[in-house]
Amino acid sequence: MTYLKGGLLIAAVMLAATMTSLRQADAAQCEQQTFEGAAYVVCTVEAGKTDLRLFWKNADGAPYRMFSSVAEAVRAEGKTLTLAVNAGMYRSDFSPMGLYVENGRELKPANTAKPAGSAGLVPNFYKKPNGVFSIGEAGAAILPTDEFLKRRPNVRFATQSGPMLVIANKLNPIFIAGSTDRTRRSGVGTCAGGAVRFAISEDGVNFHDFARLFRDHLNCPDALFLDGGRGVGIYNPAMGRNDWSWHGGYGPMFGVVK
């Protein structure tokens, strides 16, 4: 009986460890963090072990717009949406501003336009370099748009946004330390150990400080700005969050499916 009890105990411990591992593998881990006095929500995803997708349109061809609409679509698959964030800037019809690839299909081409105007008036998407977040066989990657187009990697998902925040462990040189351009911001980084980290600021921060969050605090050598101001949002039931965009909805969205 002693041997049986010991065996059952070992089996129970092994089962608990396995279940914990599975939970960690298929769900995002979100937590509140502070960096240099500013509050953030940071969500970590293991891209190679987690069902991280992009969502734009539903089965009828209409933009989802709301996190809850994506959650309903995922629920119809018998699964659960555990995390969603907006996946870059979008047009008034909720279509992507640039390259968008979903399930291996390029639904929008890369945007390489160079709008006229002084540097301070150029929309964030066009500030150079902008970049592409992608998921392929090798995992998640963030590359400046020009480099991505030169390589043309085979990817399952991709979204273009801008500007790049961190490039090969260096801050984007266009950012100004101490800038008074402060607002809520969201971004994504590819980080040490193959992790993908999403950060959503709860306070107003400038680009320089936001980029340093990814490089110096989250250990992400490459990071991409997603959106700012009224376009920032997150869906995470574990934290009681189901944000709504003041623009009437979101365009493309990242979603973690369990």
Fold and architecture overview:
This protein has 258 residues and is α+β, with helices and mostly antiparallel strands. The chain has one domain (26-109, 122-257). 20% of the residues lie in helices and 34% in strands. It has 4 helices and 17 strands. The chain has helices at residues 2-26, 67-75, 145-151, 207-217; strands at 29-35, 38-46, 51-55, 81-86, 100-102, 105-108, 131-136, 139-144, 155-161, 164-167, 170-171, 185-190, 195-201, 222-228, 234-236, 241-242, 253-257. The strands form 3 sheets. Strands 1-2-13-12-14-10-11 form a 7-stranded antiparallel β-sheet. It has a 5-stranded antiparallel β-sheet with strand order 3-17-4-15-16, covered by helices on one side. It is globular, with a radius of gyration of 19 Å. The termini are far apart. The model is unreliable at 1-26 (pLDDT under 50).
